[in-house]
Amino acid sequence: MTEPTSDWRDIPKVELHLHLEGAAPPAFIRGLAAEKGMDLSAIFRPDGGYRYEGFEHFLQVYEAACQVLTGPEEFRRLTLAVLEESASQGVVYTEAFLSPEFCGGGDVGAWREYLAAIQDAAMQAERDFGITLRGCATIIRHLGPDKGRDTARCAVETAGDFLTGFGLAGAEMMGRPGDYAWSFDAAREAGLRLTAHAGEWGGPDMVADTIRDLKVERIGHGINAIRDLALVDDIAEKGIVLEVCPGSNVFLGAVPSWKDHPLPKLMARGVKCTVSTDDPPFFHTTMSNEYDMLEQVFDFGESEFRHLAETGLAGAFCDEATRERVRKRLA
Ligand code: HPA
Ligand code: ZN
């Protein structure tokens, strides 16, 4: 296959599934490690990229990289670096998964300071790069339901114009979605909008349980729903939005290859699908690379890309004034 050429860099894009720490450019993490005298050489390859094999190891390397993010100032710098890169890919609106566990260990007071720094960087990026960010506080599933409740308390205390979403990420096969129902109920009552990773590694049962027990409006990935067409139809009928990350799925082996990716089938069956990068430097991708690959493999073009952006904006966890403001950027 020929190398992607970034033809689609300038078309306006909406990205709903991006892990803030996972979007950290390796050079940014290496630079912070050097500043702090920390040795993180084990997680980098000689060419400077992140070094890991498979999903479990990815999560470990991810957490090792996060060790250099020691305070609000580091997250302010990270947010600016990530948004500058996203804006350069044509992204005009993005939502990022934020982890109160990585931002003060689940302590509400500490989290407030981290979140303020992230929001401050978001305002600067909006002025400087023309990109809008909203935050989604996210449970790290493999840390268990008790830590999940700490995350929910942090989210509930800071829900507002900027922190608009609540999510569930991490090792999908640990426990069941219902273990997190208390946290999702609390977040919903605080007015937060809900999404959860499911059906990246788990089967249709994991997607169905997530919808039933956590009452989410969106699903992170959700691609394995394709194995149960009655479930696909239910997702379509309920209007649940899938945050599909094809490059991530191919790189981590959740699907065998690009041509096997179920995105076009899900769209054809009426499911609201969006496209995101997940953890772009870890998966050697960017938003324009995703678009280029979708063009090469599935013959997507301008009308599909405009549809994806509109679906993304309609499913975005922002207030209506923000949605209208961003809509003008998609024209
Ligand atoms: N999947 C699940 N959990 C994660 C990811 C991911 O891609 N990145 C960070 N946490
Ligand atoms: Zn993800």
TrEMBL record:
NCBIfam families linked to this entry: aden_deam, PRK09358.1-3
PANTHER family linked to this entry: ADENINE DEAMINASE
Domain called Adenosine deaminase: residue spans: 12-330
A single GO molecular function term of this UniProt record: hydrolase activity, acting on carbon-nitrogen (but not peptide) bonds, in cyclic amidines
Cofactor(s) the protein needs: Zn(2+)
Signal peptide range: none
Full protein name: Adenosine deaminase
Family that this chain belongs to: Belongs to the metallo-dependent hydrolases superfamily. Adenosine and AMP deaminases family.
A Pfam family annotated for this UniProt entry: A_deaminase
Keywords of this entry: Hydrolase, Metal-binding, Zinc
